[in-house]
Q: What sequence folds into this?
């Protein structure tokens, strides 16, 4: 089932935008629109946007949504396009609203340890700006040098620091959101504690543009932590590495980073970066501490003890901060290293931390049974793994095999009490699995929220939630909701 976009309605919308918002840049040429068809999700089918708009203010976004509602044209909110779930991919004939021009930091509030920012700013740029003030913004996706804060908010992005500092939602104090009809809503603020009514702020974080478009965020900052100390541990099996993670968890160890790379990933990274990694090992853990003073060394000592008990065969500590930065960057670029070898479909599953060894075994069984090459890395410290399915770029069976193996891995994760997405979001790619994971009653509650905030169904229709049982027809849905024309 697909979204129907009336070409006449789109033409009328574009004419209204040009008349009402002449300063808003609009892309209408097919070649320009093609660049906004996909995000970074491999083997995803998506539609060609009917037009692409670049607002520069909250007022622009409000007016765009007001006009889109009037003309019944679906809207796809989009940040930097680095997502891995198809949440910002194009919908045929719809209006894609790109937020990258709204990229200003509005205030760094040292007294209240927070920053107020627009959504288009790149994560790394925000980090650098607050670091210059002696402060630290914790959320740390591997793509932090290219992903936008708005995209991070839309997917509730994770990253390398989640084991200690949590996901994006844990850093959000307040939001400014434009609803489907153009209403501007403010949630939260600069208070550390605020329980007035429902937690609307957290409702929008992770909603992938299906409930509103975020135009401003107030984000929690921390005092700058100490320099990171880094430990690499190599293992003869993935199971031994998973056992080491489980031992660290049960010992109460909370490092800032606890990352896993399997043999395929180690070799791809070493082939590209020549860091002297042990390419004969089956797995590697990267453990980092940002504790102050002697605390960092003590934390890594405990990680070494747990790793030795699990069968760690060799260990290396970074000699200095520069070497630690090189090693961390290599982990961040693991996906890019694998993409040099073919087309890669990265998946995103999570389980309770103690069950990481079982998930690793399930991934190995499934990929081996289907003869699919797989490289697994991820945030083992919080149970979030990324199996990466690698295919020759001209493999005609790649798309079909991707979905077969992916579904087996998803089922294994759920059987272990886990999730089909820990940080990338449901989007379009995992939509069929949402009711399987959370159940029909939970989906019904989500749909009621969606219908209440977006009765026309124009905001990213068919993302996160399946389309309604009848084809999207905004007029009839509005009438069923009892609203006026």
A:
């Amino acid at each position: 089932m697909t979204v129907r976009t009336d070409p006449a309605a789109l033409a009328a919308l574009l004419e209204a935008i040009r008349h009402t918002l002449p300063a808003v840049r609009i892309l209408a040429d097919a070649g320009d629109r093609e660049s906004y068809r996909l995000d970074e999700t491999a083997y995803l089918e998506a539609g060609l946007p009917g037009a692409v708009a670049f607002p520069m203010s909250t007022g622009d976004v409000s007016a765009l949504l007001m006009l889109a509602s009037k003309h019944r044209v679906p809207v796809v909110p989009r940040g930097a396009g680095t997502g891995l779930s198809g949440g910002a991919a194009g919908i045929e004939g719809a209006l894609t609203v790109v937020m990258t021009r709204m990229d200003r930091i509005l205030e760094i509030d040292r007294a209240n340890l927070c920053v107020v920012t627009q959504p288009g700013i790149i994560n790394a740029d925000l980090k650098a700006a607050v670091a210059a003030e002696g402060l630290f913004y914790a959320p740390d996706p591997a793509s932090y040098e290219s992903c936008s804060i708005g995209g991070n908010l839309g997917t509730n992005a994770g990253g390398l620091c989640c084991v200690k500092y949590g996901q994006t939602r844990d850093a959000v104090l307040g939001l400014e959101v434009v609803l489907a009809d153009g209403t501007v809503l403010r949630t939260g603020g600069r208070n550390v504690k605020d329980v007035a009514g429902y937690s609307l702020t957290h409702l929008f974080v992770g909603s992938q543009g299906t409930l509103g478009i975020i135009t401003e965020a107030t984000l929690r900052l921390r005092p700058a932590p100490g320099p990171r100390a880094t430990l690499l541990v190599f293992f003869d099996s993935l199971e031994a590495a998973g056992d080491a993670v489980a031992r660290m968890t049960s010992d109460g160890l909370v490092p800032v980073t606890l990352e896993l790379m399997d043999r395929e990933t180690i070799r791809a990274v070493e082939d590209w970066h020549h860091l002297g990694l042990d390419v004969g090992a089956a797995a590697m853990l990267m453990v980092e501490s940002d504790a102050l003073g002697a605390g960092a060394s003590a934390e890594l000592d405990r990680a070494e003890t747990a790793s030795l008990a699990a069968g760690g065969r060799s260990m290396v500590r970074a000699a200095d901060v520069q070497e630690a930065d090189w090693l961390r960057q290599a982990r961040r670029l693991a996906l890019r290293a694998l993409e040099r070898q073919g087309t890669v479909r990265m998946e995103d599953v999570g389980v309770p931390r103690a069950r990481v060894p079982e998930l690793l075994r399930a991934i190995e069984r499934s990929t081996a049974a289907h003869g699919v090459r797989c490289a697994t890395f991820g945030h083992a410290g919080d149970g979030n793994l990324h199996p990466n399915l690698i295919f020759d770029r001209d493999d005609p069976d790649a798309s079909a095999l991707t979905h077969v193996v992916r579904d087996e891995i998803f089922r294994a994760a759920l059987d272990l009490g886990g999730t089909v997405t820990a940080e990338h979001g449901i989007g379009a790619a995992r939509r069929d699995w949402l009711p399987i994971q959370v159940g029909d009653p939970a989906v019904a509650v989500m749909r009621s929220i969606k219908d209440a905030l977006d009765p026309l169904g124009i905001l990213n229709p068919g993302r996160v939630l399946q389309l309604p049982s009848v084809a999207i027809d905004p007029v009839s849905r509005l009438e069923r909701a009892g609203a006026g024309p």
Notes: The chain has three domains: 7-224, 229-415, 431-480. The first strand starts at residue 25 and ends at 27.
